[in-house]
Amino acid sequence: xxxxxxxxxxxxxxxxxxxxxxxxxxxxxxxxxxxxxxxxxxxxxxxxxxxxxxxxxxxxxxxxxxxxxxxxxxxxxxxxxxxxxxxxxxxxxxxxxxxxxxxxxxxxxxxxxxxxxxxxxxxxxxxxxxxxxxxxxxxxxxxxxxxxxxxxxxxxxxxxxxxxxxxxxxxxxxxxxxxxxxxxxxxxxxxxxxxxxxxxxxxxxxxxxxxxxxxxxxxxxxxxxxxxxxxxxxxxxxxxxxxxxxxxxxxxxxxxxxxxxxxxxxxxxxxxxxxxxxxxxxxxxxxxxxxxxxxxxxxxxxxxxxxxxxxxxxxxxxxxxxxxxxxxxxxxxxxxxxxxxxxxxxxxxxxxxxxxxxxxxxxxxxxxxxxxxxxxxxxxxxxxxxx
Length: 387
What we know:
About 40% of the residues lie in helices and about 10% in strands.
């Protein structure tokens, strides 16, 4: 087994072991990819303040997100097509998260269905839904999540229209993948991935095919997807979704304080500061730069989590010290999954946990719940003065 000491090591393995169209799907953003890049690079503008001669023993990264006890304030974000990165990928990622004691969030556009994941795990997981036009399908999604004992629903509000991702278009991204000469030639070089896919029956969108009206097979999925997302979405519609789900509710895709206040007003239990990993509006602020203004607006009234750009335990540390009460990793766990399956997701979590724990100690803190901006050196113009 190759030595993996960083998320970048897992990414290198992932790139070699997974077909190009699925690697590109994860490792890309929309348009020029400015926001995709800055989501990660902007963390480097924040420095850590080292302290010495402080008792570092007895450290704890244990925390809570929406009332749930967790081993560290890191959840696995909802990622579509995870089961194309590795056979039965959502099941494997959910198992790894459960064993590690952190939340796993299943995407509506997953390959393994809600029922697949529930049958192959013993603890509750979270379920993410898009804002779709079909109210009956939405209600049935929430009902299926309840039946599977999902402990929270995550509503993604920043995908009313699909941001253009050039690589996906050029690669002809689909699930299952379209068999062209180019795609077949590439997939033939990914033997381990191919053997895994041959051994599973789960190769299309398990939450949609056979459940959405008129979608009985993968060939009918494309037309449904093109029409499914609700361009007319407003906060009244989100209130309807709140009534469909009576459990803990998280709203994902908030980057403006006004929207943070609106999410609070509709009865959300938490919000996720997220720009969809730079995959929607290119040229938007990175999530970490957007966080302070949102904390100022609602941070004392609702849990504020952060997603987009986290690739290390130090990134987690910085987000928490800036005020977030939880964080999410998407690409970081996908790298591990594509590299080594369930063991790779576990390894990604181990790497992030160790970096968080050790860096926290060097900053003179022993409890992740006591982190604040005193451990950081933040540039005065970090959040910008915009006209």
